[in-house]
Amino acid sequence: MSLDFKKMQETIQGIYQKYESETGQFKEQAVCGRGCSFCCSDMGKIDIVTVEGIVLLERLESMPETEAKEIKQGLERDRILRRKGKKSACPFLDELGACRVYTARPFSCRQLYSLRKCDQGGPLVHKQAVFLARKVVRDIQKLDDTGYSGHHSFILKLLHNKTFRNTYNIGGFDPGSIKKFRKKHGITINRFVK
After folding, report:
1. Residue 44: is its pLDDT beyond 70?
2. Averaged over 58-67, what is the pLDDT?
């Protein structure tokens, strides 16, 4: 039986919207704005689940070829730097620091905000928002039960593996087939997260 990605994406959108309504009061005083990209470049990992990777790939495929090529090259650079233990700016940022996939961004990006400028000691968020975000991450992982979680450039690389993608698309679950890749890149098996 194939996974119903459309239904999964609709469910995830509902989870995102619920989080937004529950945290809206916290974000009213956020200082973030278009081009503010500290969290996208200096904070570390941008984790996604497999189904969020599908959404990003669909968005990437709908972009002009030159822009998509630039992002794909950026994703490869990101993987190289991360293998060396270095941070890199998100490849989906444009030259002005704005997100090129904003409406398709994963939850790890949607949860970010700060009550002070991040260059003044990093982001400042409410504890309740952090608590709610942890619950949302787990809810998304449960929804993507046959999938995985990890840094976006590695999940997207995994989705380019045709054997993995075919297994995943039909709702298959074979973590042994990607064991080496998983361990090397810190990929989490959603089904086993508590």
Report:
1. no
2. 96
